Amino acid sequence: MNETTLTIVGNLTAEPELRQTNSGVAVASFTVASTPRNFDRQANEWKDGDALFMRCSAWRDLATNITASLTKGSRVIVTGRLQQRSYQDREGNNRVSLELQVDEVGPSLKYATAQVVRGDRSGGGGVPVTASAGAAAPASAGAAAPAAAADSWSSPNAEWSTADETPF
């Protein structure tokens, strides 16, 4: 439990890449660029600092949901465990790389809106989250938004049927 956790707010530098391991487990890889901005009072303008480019990996349903929901340029909030790997390159030089093993990711709502649609809980993954700079958009261009009756938060499913309200 002595892992280094990190939260980064930034933009995706490219489309997330979805791959499968030999055993069929989904893994998504993407890079988040986070650039600090400071106001220079003498110049009376904002100036960008040095950007941090953090390579990220997400696994299983999270990987599938990321690739279905996020695109190049999406502003995201990512939290996970920082991992350092040591290796030798082709020339025999010792190298070190840092990667974030993602635990949670979501669109930043600072400059956009998003409509969140819960996925099923049977491990089948989720439905994409669409973020836009204006009003909330449907989860996907061709799909209609689900009716409130089908929403697991507004109407309890069979495992909650003994209670009359959503359990929290």
> CA-to-CA gap between the ends?
27 Å
Please outline the major beta sheet.
Answer: 5 strands, mixed, barrel
Morphology call: globular
Helix content: under 10%
Residue windows where pLDDT falls under 50 for at least 5 positions: 134-163
Number of helices: 1
Q: What is the strand arrangement across the widest sheet?
A: 1-3-6-8-7
| Amount of beta strand | 35-45%
| Overall residue-averaged pLDDT value | 81
Number of DSSP strands? Answer: 10
| Helix vs. strand class | mainly beta
Strand-and-helix sequence, N→C? EEEEEEHEEEE
Radius of gyration: 20 Å
Descriptive account of the structure:
6% of the residues lie in helices and 43% in strands. The protein has one helix spanning 60-69; strands at residues 4-12, 17-20, 26-34, 37-40, 45-48, 52-59, 75-88, 94-107, 113-115, 130-132. The protein has a five-stranded mixed β-barrel. A two-stranded antiparallel ribbon has the order 4-5. Strands 9-10 form a two-stranded antiparallel ribbon. The chain starts with a strand and ends in a 36-residue tail after the last strand. The model is unreliable at 134-163 (pLDDT under 50).
Features:
168 residues, mainly beta, 6% helix, globular
Question: Gist?
Answer:
The protein is mostly beta strands. The chain has 1 helix and 10 strands.
Topology record:
Blueprint: E1 4-12, E2 17-20, E3 26-34, E4 37-40, E5 45-48, E6 52-59, H1 60-69, E7 75-88, E8 94-107, E9 113-115, E10 130-132
Parallel strand pairs: 6-8
Antiparallel strand pairs: 1-3, 1-7, 2-3, 3-6, 4-5, 7-8, 9-10
